[in-house]
Amino acid sequence: MPKAGIIYNDLKPVACRVAGELKNQLAAAGWDVCLTTGSSGILGYANPSSPVYHTPIELLTPPGFDEEMSFAVVLGGDGTVLAAFRLVAPSGIPLLTVNTGHMGFLTESYVNQLPQAIEEVMAGKYEIEERSMLTVRVFREDTVLWEALCLNEMVIHREPLTSMCHFEVQVGRHAPIDIAADGVIISTPTGSTAYALSAGGPVITPGVQVLQLVPICPHSMASRALVFANSDPVSIFPVNLERLVMVVDGNAGCYVMPSDRVHVERSRHRARFIRLQPPEFFRILREKLGWGLPHIAKPTSVELP
Known about the structure:
By secondary structure, the protein is an alpha+beta fold. The chain has 2 domains: 3-131 and 269-289, Rossmann fold (3-Layer(aba) Sandwich), CATH 3.40.50.10330; 133-267, Tumour Suppressor Smad4 (Sandwich). The protein is built from 5 helices and 17 strands. It has helices at 13-28, 78-88, 114-122, 195-198, 281-289, and strands spanning 3-8, 32-37, 69-76, 95-99, 109-110, 127-140, 143-150, 153-158, 165-171, 177-181, 183-187, 210-216, 226-229, 234-238, 244-248, 252-256, 261-275. It is globular and about 60 Å long. The N and C termini lie far apart (75 Å).
């Protein structure tokens, strides 16, 4: 019996309703169905009084979501998609992402299109688009305090009511650089349209094998976004007296103390998106962010006398 999964946002009534309907549809077609909520991929924060608080990356996968699963459907917004890939990327399960939220930048389809979309997926009429992910770890000496998979970005920043931060950042074997800013973002191409874009970083098409480093509100005109090969790992050493906060994909993170080190590298796991039509990144940029729309005052051709 073929097996499929459903990951849904249990805080949204429409996602809960559609998850039940989809389970019945798949079961009636002869599929074994596993359900879980996206909340299991939203990790907690390490407490400074009890800093070792992490679940190894490979142990987050829900029961039944294994290599035998043909595909899974995600019902929610971008946050649910990010959490879902944290759950299933180690098993290589491709995800059909269905938007029940607002922006839906990472989603492939909408709820009203789901019946037809699921028929195509069950028939195998789709492509797989792979996106790079990051492995993020926080070390205290040689001990891993916290780790997570990351599809969009890792952000380390100051806490409210504290002063500007100083960071020493080393990319690969290159000489360390000093950054004075409110924080630092390490982003994948997928995350280049998220926080990194708001912080002034460039948009990077998904197939480019690079990462980017973006300072947040830097205290120098020389500190700007840096794009580098994703084969280079990144180590970040906070040079502060106060603790900092690290957030991964907007829904997981931990405190970082002055003696800690953050290590970011390309993960061996990849996010596998189900695409019902060939991926067209510029179309998504136009529809979601308004990029490249015709200008209302675009001049028309004029005949010269």
